[in-house]
Amino acid sequence: MRSLVLAASGDGAQVHLTSQTRIVAAVIAIFFMLLILDLIRRDRLQERYSVIWFVAGLGMLAGAAFPGLLEFVADLMGVRDTNVALFSIVLLLLLGLALNFSVIMSRQAAQITRLAQERAIERAQKQAAEGRNGNSAGEQALEPEEQSFEG
Amino acid sequence: MRTLVFIPAWNEEASVTAVIADVRKSIPGAEILVVDDGSGDATAERAREAGALVASLPFNQGLGAALQTGYLYALRNGYDACAHLDADGQHPAEEVGRLLAEVTAGGADLVIGSRYHAGAVSESGDYEASFSRRIGISVFRFFLTLATRQRFTDTTSGMRAANRRVMALFSQHYSPDFAEIESLQLAVRQGLRVEELPVRMLERAGGTSFLTPVRSAFFIFKGLVVLLVGQFRPRQAEAEQ
């Protein structure tokens, strides 16, 4: 605890991940990937949407196994505290994922709309075909009323 | 020359019958299609009883999707021209007939019926526009004119007539949220000839406009974003060629 405070207040000194953090991160990453595998196995998650999650899990594992990686990235970002760099990366990753979902959602919304339109059109075409087999659709609906009016 | 008149309708059981009758009287040769946008009432039944074809969307998709359904139906079934009007009785079919005549005469690919164009008159006095609505109208007018370099007066008019080039374009690209404005921008950008004709419109029979000040502010903002994004859309090759 004291060393952390000292490190944080010291000029130019870097704050590193502790080995405890690394172990916890590695365990979480492994469980996370197992969860993804299980979801795929039980058809709750499609493979094509799982790739990005595996990449996230592997990234987490890599960060835990090779702390040098994170420090390198922290240096690139100009961040002294490796933990801050970690949070920033995760935040960006989540932002990217959320955007990715919006894109997928938009595509599916468009597909659903087109499906609904196709179905509506098919039913109208069927109605049109039935109408032409008899009289024209318009007169068919009006005639009975007019006849009963006379009779 | 086969003509389709389609009517997007969402919970319009009270007025749809009269609108269909009006279209049949004023545009005798046209087939009439009601696009029922997931209505919870008897809109589809009323339309069928009145002798119109009915394309029922299984759930409410919004005006843009309903209009696109009409364009897609017209395209697929080989109609030479199509037109659409609102189901609430604000649009006299006689005026729609004039728009169609302009399209079939080859004057333009897409003809918009404008309430505000010089020469347009509205019954029972002026077309009653609230303050927020007037602001919205002028903002859209200004930016659409800027974006298309063509003067438009009634950017949100739901009374239009179109030929097959427009059907091909709109059945592929039609914004579900901001149908009226974006479609005009799109059509002009794709090199189609778009024209406005002054038309007579009626006051809305019942109900109030959905625009409250906050909503109109949001509506305007959204519209501007849509227009801005639209300016960066690629110009595609001719839709049908």
Secondary-structure topology with pairs:
The complex is a heterodimer of chains A (about 150) and B (about 240).
Chain A: H1 2-9, H2 19-41, H3 47-65, H4 67-77, H5 82-133, H6 137-150
Helix pairs in contact in A: 2-3, 3-4, 4-5
Chain B: E1 3-9, H1 16-26, E2 31-37, H2 43-49, E3 53-57, H3 63-76, E4 81-84, H4 93-104, E5 110-114, H5 131-148, E6 160-163, H6 164-172, H7 179-189, E7 194-198, H8 213-231
Helix pairs in contact in B: 1-4, 3-6, 5-7, 5-8, 7-8
Description:
The complex is a heterodimer of chains A (151) and B (241). With 151 residues, chain A is mainly alpha-helical. Chain A has one domain. Chain B has 241 residues and is an alpha/beta fold. Chain B contains eight helices and seven strands, in the order E-H-E-H-E-H-E-H-E-H-E-H-H-E-H. Chain B is globular.
Give structural attributes.
heterodimer; A: 151 residues; 0% strand; B: alpha/beta; seven-stranded mixed beta sheet; 8 helices
Which range does the strand content of chain A fall in?
under 5%
Count helical runs of chain B: 8
Oligomer: heterodimer
Mean pLDDT of chain B: 86
N-to-C span of chain A: 101 Å
How far apart, in Å, are the first and last alpha carbons of chain B?
21 Å
